[in-house]
Amino acid sequence: MVKWVAVLLTIVLLGPVLAGQVGELGSQVLDNFPLWTR
Predict the structure, then answer these.
(1) CA dihedral 31, 34, 35, 38 (to 10 degrees)
(2) Would you say residue 15 has pLDDT above 80?
(3) C-alpha–C-alpha distance, residues 19 and 27, integer Å
(4) Least CB-packed of 1, 12, 13, 34 within 10 Å?
(5) d(Cα 22, Cα 9) in Å, to the nearest integer?
(6) Cα–Cα distance, 8 to 14 (Å, whole number)
(7) SS (H, E, C) 1-38
């Protein structure tokens, strides 16, 4: 039971950080996409 609580806490704490990093990567890819498709 304690393990599940730890996993949930980790997801809640790291979720926003991972989402932010993925969002930044996505925005960079979208910014560079027109350059790559030329």
Answers:
(1) 170
(2) yes
(3) 12
(4) 1
(5) 20
(6) 10
(7) CHHHHHHHHHHHHHHHHHHHHHHHHHHHHHHHHHHHCC
